[in-house]
């Protein structure tokens, strides 16, 4: 290769590198100019979960942008050449924070000069809200929370938000590894019971099945099981309450034995229109029946006066 050809190759490589850097800078600027929205906006009740989510979202855009929240390293001096770019990035981070705050709160936060000043104000305003009254209120809310017909996914996300606030405001104070494991197991069972208790009545059969598991699953495992049951019902069709009860448990008559009606369905202490011998319910020998409620004979509990 001639000496001139080598120089040409060097120039071409230099141009390629230069064009690549320019492209990266343009893509970076385009990324920073995009809006950033997470699935929930900051209000007076969800700071802990919101703060985690917004940090992850901003760090996902560019890890260096988290410096605008922490203040480390310190911003460049206004006379430095890098200050203009830093200020532009800081305005972007500031706008992302405002975009993800409820409008009623955001209207009072626009006067802060930098993203860090705004972030610090949010920390002081909401993270210091750790009184025992608020912690008590969160535990009451977790225990009283109900699905009330809302979509399963929305209900689950809301309940997780309450748990996140509890974990943040009432953290595990134990330092011993063995005791930490015990504490976590207790909290896991509490979350499981709260989740099952909050579910609508239509999930009672699957709730009973989950409580028979040994060992008990986590709340997350129970949620997965409920979602699986929902998908199963979506394929086979929803079952009415009476049919579901007939299909899921064997029926018991007064003497404790299991019998079926003419269609092969289990019955549970209810008089049958026709037994296997062809007799109607009026022809059944009632002297053998005994009520488990009042102790008297010739009728069952469902017929008790």
Describe the protein in words.
The chain has 305 residues and is mainly alpha-helical. It is 56% helix and 0% strand. The protein folds into three domains: 1-33; 37-127, no CATH class; 132-239, no CATH class.
User: Structurally, how many domains make up the residues?
Assistant: 3
Largest sheet: none
**How many strands appear in the DSSP assignment?**
0
In sequence order, what are the helices and strands, one letter per element?
HHHHHHHHHHHH
Number of helices: 12
The helical percent reads 55-70%
Q: Approximately what portion of the residues adopt beta-strand conformation?
A: under 5%
Alpha-carbon Rg, integer: 33 Å
Structural class assignment: mainly alpha
In a few lines, what is going on in this structure?
The protein is mostly helical. The chain is built from 12 helices and no strands.
How do the helices and strands line up, and which of them pair or pack?
Elements: H1 3-33, H2 47-61, H3 67-70, H4 83-99, H5 103-106, H6 115-127, H7 132-144, H8 152-169, H9 177-198, H10 204-211, H11 219-236, H12 241-248
Helix pairs in contact: 4-6, 7-8, 9-11
Which descriptors would you attach to this protein?
305 residues, 56% helix, mainly alpha, 12 helices
């Amino acid at each position: 290769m001639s000496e001139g050809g080598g120089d040409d190759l060097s120039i071409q490589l230099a141009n390629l590198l230069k064009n690549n850097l320019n492209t990266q800078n343009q893509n970076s600027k385009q990324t920073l100019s995009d809006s950033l929205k997470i699935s929930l906006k900051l209000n007076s009740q969800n700071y802990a979960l919101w703060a985690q989510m917004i940090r992850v979202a901003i760090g996902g855009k560019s890890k260096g942008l988290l410096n605008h929240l922490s203040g480390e390293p310190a911003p460049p001096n206004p006379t430095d050449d890098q200050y203009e770019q830093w200020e532009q990035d800081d305005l972007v981070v500031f706008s992302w924070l405002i975009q993800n705050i409820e409008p009623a709160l955001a209207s009072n936060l626009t006067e802060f000069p930098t993203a860090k000043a705004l972030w610090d104000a949010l920390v002081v305003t909401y993270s210091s809200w750790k009184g025992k009254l608020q912690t008590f209120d969160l535990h009451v809310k977790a225990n009283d929370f109900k699905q009330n017909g809302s979509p399963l996914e929305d209900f689950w996300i809301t309940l997780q938000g309450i748990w996140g606030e509890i974990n943040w405001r009432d953290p595990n104070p134990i330092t011993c590894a063995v005791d930490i494991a015990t504490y976590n197991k207790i909290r896991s069972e509490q979350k499981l019971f709260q989740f099952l208790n909050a579910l609508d009545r239509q999930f009672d059969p699957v709730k009973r099945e989950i409580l028979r598991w040994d060992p008990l699953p986590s709340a997350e495992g129970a949620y997965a099981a409920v979602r699986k049951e929902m998908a199963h019902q979506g394929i086979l069709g929803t079952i009415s309450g009476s049919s579901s009860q007939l299909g899921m448990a064997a029926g018991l008559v007064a003497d404790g034995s299991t019998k079926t009606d003419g269609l092969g369905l289990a019955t549970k202490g209810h008089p049958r229109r026709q037994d296997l011998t062809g007799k109607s319910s009026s022809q059944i020998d009632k002297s053998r029946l005994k009520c488990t409620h009042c102790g008297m004979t010739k009728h069952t509990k469902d017929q008790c006066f």
